[in-house]
Amino acid sequence: MQNRQAYLAAAALLVGLALLGLWGERFLLYLAMRVMILAIFALGFDLLFGRTGLLSFGHGAFYAGGAYGTALCYLHLSKDPLLCLLAGLLLATALALIVGFFCVRHTEIYFAMLTLAFGMMIFSLVWNLREITGGDDGLVGISRQAINLGLAKLPLRKEGQFYFLVLSCFGLVLYAVHRIRSSPFGLILAGIRENHLRAEFAGANIKNYRLAAFVISGFLAGLAGGLGVLLESNAAPFAAHWSHSSEPVLVSLIGGLNTLAGPLVGSFVFIVLKEVVMRVTPYWMLWFGVVLLVILLGFRGGVVGTLAQALGRGAKEARS
Amino acid sequence: MLESIVHVCLAGLSGGMFIWLVASGLTLIFGVLGVLNFAHGSFYMLGAYLCFSVLRALGQNFWWGLLLGPLVVAAVGYLVERFFLRRVYGLELPYQLLLTFAFVLLFDDLVKILWGAGSLGAPGAPGLTDSVPILGRQFPVYNLFVIAVGPLVAVGLWALLEKTWAGRIIRASSSDREMASALGVKVPALFTAVFVFGSWLGALGGGLAVPYLGLLTPGMGEQVIIEAFVVAVIGGLGSLKGAFLGALLIGLLSAFGTRFLPAFDMFLTFILMAGVLLWRPQGFFGEKR
User: What ipTM was reported for this prediction?
Assistant: First the structure.
């Protein structure tokens, strides 16, 4: 019953987004794409943080891996957008595999500090290897070429065209993350968060499970980074900085930890709030600080958790 | 060559002392409260800005700023601990980390609102603006002063913790919170006191940095907190001795890196941090938790 409702809600969301893509104006589409890209980033991140209980402060590095892989492929190898995205995904996943291999040896604060260290290492490379990465300028001038399908070409140049590529990725990721969460693998991840000793005694090699969650989240961060480059037409070094790594943390918390809807709601609130606040005042961080405080002190379930609680209470009262 | 190396060492030592002042408060707070305080760099930044404002209001006298600025920050620290941090002690670690992170966001913008987003030029410290020749090259007296203050603070902290009654209580609560509480230590009040003192130390570092940097920018707290994290991790979370030696190591490493390997200066710092975490997660002097 609940499952069917969730599927209906997801289908309605995707159909609504598709309709928006057909009739929305350019700026609206741009915002919607930013929300979806951030949601892809956060969906992967929450698999690691909300689901497995590992707080990473270095996922900006994998986002940057996807971004720079895509941009470098475009500038040096091929201008085919799908090929470029693939290159970005490869780079991000390879980075996540290497970094994750070391990081999953620790948990809690040591894990957070290790991911911070590795993330900043990658940032310093991006910042200093000017010949390859363009240093503080980043890599610019990446335009969206048409996807070549052999018989026909699929143009992406306009916002309204690229929008459907982002939407397809978003839909696929949403489905994949849902499947992962309900799979035995996803249940073991939750078990590791709840009690890693018990999970270990049950026979799970928890390091491998943690690493798998880490790599999946790195892969999705890379996808977000690659799409971000195609959207903004440049790759910027601060994507790898720890302050960017804190973005999915905020998004997961605002939306609600360890839920499928949480990262979606969180991304929506994050982007919209940022846009609205930035119109009134340049000090959007101040307001995010306040929102974060309110959530941490009063509504730790985030938007989704709090709503679910309120609805649950309402349903109970209606029944009695 | 020799004099160049001596000067790089001196630069590294003075740079390391600022990291030490920030890392000492961070370490003290982590050792007693068990909270890794992201906002500690913001206290450093607030200390610098408040010192600047006070010295401006009181006729360009830096010493008044250094005295009063950190006291205001200590009061801010009191508010943060008493009304916010105290409410999340029972929660998991990420929540505590994120609560302090919220204050990083808050204070960063608050500084921009109160003092402007651009950088501010600051005057030198009266009496210490000269340079002295060392091996044929000029070296600022103020930097020598900073190199002297760092160890003084270290000795002061050591004496406070090892030789006084308050220090004994702090050490007791740090090693076993429940036992200390059972023996009549008012742990919540102690936590507040340690947090306030730690904030004051961070702000003192910020105040001292005003003439050293000669320039205040709103991002100065974020840079220093990451360095302080590195130092606290290398020395061992919760170990003051480790933080002191770690700060010297990072200060020197980064001075030599800037001089000889400018492209990999930051990389070296973080690879050292990652290496220590992997090889000895408790750091050089920390206890395994």
Answer: 0.80
